[in-house]
Design a protein that fits this description.
By secondary structure, the protein is of the alpha/beta class. The protein folds into three domains: 130 residues, 3-Layer(aba) Sandwich (Rossmann fold), CATH 3.40.50; 201 residues; 91 residues, Beta Barrel (Elongation Factor Tu (Ef-tu), domain 3). Helices cover 49% and strands 14% of the residues. The chain contains 15 helices and eleven strands. The strands form three sheets. The chain has a five-stranded parallel beta sheet, sandwiched between helices. A three-stranded antiparallel beta sheet has the order 1-2-5, with no helix packed on it. This is Oxidoreductase FAD/NAD(P)-binding.
Amino acid sequence: MTKLGVPGPDQGVSGVTAVHSPPSPPTARRRPETVARTGLYALLAANALVVAVLFVRAGFGANALVVLGRLTGLYAGLLMAFQLLLVARLPWLDRRIGMDRLTLWHRWTGFGLLWALLAHVVFITFGYADMSSLDPVDQLVDLAGTVEGVLRAVVALALILVVGAVSARRARRRLAYETWHFIHLYSYAAVVLAFSHQVAVGSTFTASPAATAYWWGLWGAALTAVLTGRLVLPLGRNRRHRLRVTAVVPENDQVVSVHITGRDLHRLPARAGQFFLWRFLTRDRWWQAHPFSLSAAPDGRTLRLTVKAAGDGSAALRRLRPGTRVFAEGPYGAFTTLRRTRPDTLLIAGGVGVTPIRALLEELDGHAVVLYRVRTEADAVLLGELRALALAKGAELHLVTGPAAPDRLAPAELSRLVPDLTGRDVYVCGPPGMTTAVLRSLRALGVPKRQIHHERFSLAG
């Protein structure tokens, strides 16, 4: 199969010779995402050390199994607090690391938490059973019935087991996001129950004023982060900006652009490449939140999202009426120019994944090359805007068409279209299969990992 509408390597759109923009200023040696990631690791390591010191100072005074049970319980509490921080959606972390990676870390931390809790229950139960001569099941029943807080801990563990089960990859694929999210809310109940258990029976918690202050401070900081990022900031921003739909513009039979305006949008810290969780406050859809990227760089006056009908929620956007109120959470994501390490850029888009790519092209300086992968030219959303932007900015635009196989963005083809790609930052956004194939090609071509930027717009990890 041939490629249609692909300019030569030395040409921009419509055969116009590409004009290079002035190079960007040198980027900082320490990348923002590296600083944020290192900060999180250091924070976790420092707290793990504090927990160990407080545990040793509290003394042991029991058999080895009970000692191990208490220690695994303390580290389970630390992991639970760290999980809350990862999903608090704090702007400083999200802009540097990205919601997709934070959510993925939250998921894997959750599995670590689950194993720590199971170890805590097993060690404690067998340890006390060894001292009382009861069998482990009877010992657990006895502890739940006679020791304050243990029954609450058992309930908390049951809730976490349920949340862990629905977080497994196969289960998440079968559940609607709203169902998954509703079940996941029970993890907050588990947090409260687990903390009340620690307050009631945690010997390390009450071993010294320093230990008590530490654990209250840890849980207080984690819950404050969640309340700030997921409640206070969204409510405050929506009250300030009062977003409304101004126009709904069909781009083709399956894709529609929604234009939104509001008050003081110049104060909204949104950047090209980011996304919001959008709730359109209609009678039948107000309860659904969808992650859609901005398809134009924010200009302080309007916001625009461009969406392909992939389900009932996205298909219903075509029926939105001007004036519809909008509740938006965000902006989220680290798929922005903040990640740049090189003056020049390669932007690779597939299908409707072109929306953040189009916004990034509008904001980027330096020389840019855009590769837009679609089945046919008729499927190329916002192609006219891309051509106009490429012409205005002296960028190269390559429209790569044809069936999914053979791969049109294999290493040899990427090298032909962009001979200097190893010296560029590369932004990739498209369907999962295409994105995976492109990332594999980039690695095969030796593009440094720090220059490759991609983001999965997913809420469930």
